[in-house]
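Hi Y.,

Following your request, here is the sequence exactly as I used it, all 507 residues.
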Amino acid sequence: MLHSESWQGGTQGHRALIVLACIFLALNISACKQSKEAEIDEAAQKLEQFYRAHSLDAQQHLDMLIADSHDTLYADRMERRYYNEGGQWRWMGAPQQIALCDALDSVMHSQISAMGFSEDIFNLADIDQQLAIMHQPDSAENAALTMAQLEHNLTQAYLRYVIGQRFGFTTPGKLFGSHNYDIEIEQADSAFVEHAMKQLTDTQTMLDFLASTEPTDTTYHMLKRQLTLDSTDEARNRTLCNMERLRWRDKKHAKDSARHIFVNVAAQQVWAISPDSVINMRICCGKPATKTPLLSSEIQKIEVNPEWGIPQSIIRGEVSGHAGDSAYFARRNYYVVGSNGQRVNPGSLTRADLASGRYAVRQRSGAGNSLGRIIFRFPNKFSVYLHDTSSPSAFNRDVRTISHGCVRLQRPFDIAEFVLPDADPWFLDKMRLSMDLQPKTEQGRQYKRTHGGAIRLVNNTEVNPKVPVLIDYYTCYRNPKTGQLENWGDPYSYDKIVLKAIKPFLR
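Below is the corresponding structure, written out as tokens. Let me know if you'd prefer a different format.
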């Protein structure tokens, strides 16, 4: 019993010691916490005093930096405009914003390297040095100038990054010219810049916005990973060029449509893409001298057995040399129409007549027509279309850049079925019969047995709903059918043009 009481008494004493120790520890922790908070408060107060003491001089320095800035990038012009119009300081305006500066600096170091770009174009070395000074402001010899430089450098780097990632670091229309490029891309404007500057309220808001400016295209992120694997300059440059192309976002969002047609000129292939299937085939496209233009539009009409209105450039360059030779026109099933709409005997015309532009030359419809038996028309300023061909053997070639600019389809009727998904089987057979193809339905086969000669049941049909079509150019891209990255040639040497434009950004 005595043993039991002694044990209980000892236990109670032990517990008392533990309680006292916990109280002592809690008091120490509380004291340390209060001491730490006091240090933080004191540091914040010092920083606040530091900012207040140098803000006026810093504003004068910033005004001079902006006035002396002669950078020609759109982002730089928008930065100058922002501050010249009295925009508030976003980085050095208050001590608590130093966390925002650190966050941007960290993202820049991470993402710029992953993009394959040089940190120099974003002045990261200067920003690092200036941030180090601001973290120990008491040691700053010229604090006001440092504050101004950091405000300027951070805003410039931020706008260069978000505008470049969201809209591209180059402008394709300027690179390729309006005679080769007519994809209306989204572009940065003052409203975007104003919105971007408003995201600098706190670190998380800024980080979310930075992430949102990066392309969401699956291929872009595949290329970004590929960049870490590229072992040669050639491979790396190809990857960088196609990453830049994916920053150019088509205003019509053709590729975002559930059903669309994607022509990749560099691959010399076309894909008809729907949610449940992908049709892929070879194409023939423009020669380097008569490039297929890059464009975005919508297929609105199908014509069966079309006539070919020969472009004036071809009339001047090729047809006019045969002026006066009626046999040449007869062999090719060409006829000539004057400005009054009346047909003219080609044997009576001179080369100068045909080259003058006063006469149109057309090719009659039929089996030998250069457009083949079917054409898919969509609005564009180049008068180029997707169509059949009278020379199908060309699809056996590896190099199929042979046309005057239009896109010839290996299996055009597959595209017809794609753009007319709800067409009645008999209507499709009427199209086949009109193109001298074998019908698929019993009704079509019966009709063919009972009607001799040429059958012309369909001339043209409207496509409703319209089907988006994008003719673009990627030398490395995710194959829509297989989902794998594939490298293709560069028949128009466009990679060289893009690489030259982004060269100042590369490391």
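The chain is about 45% helix and 15% strand.

Thanks again,
Q.
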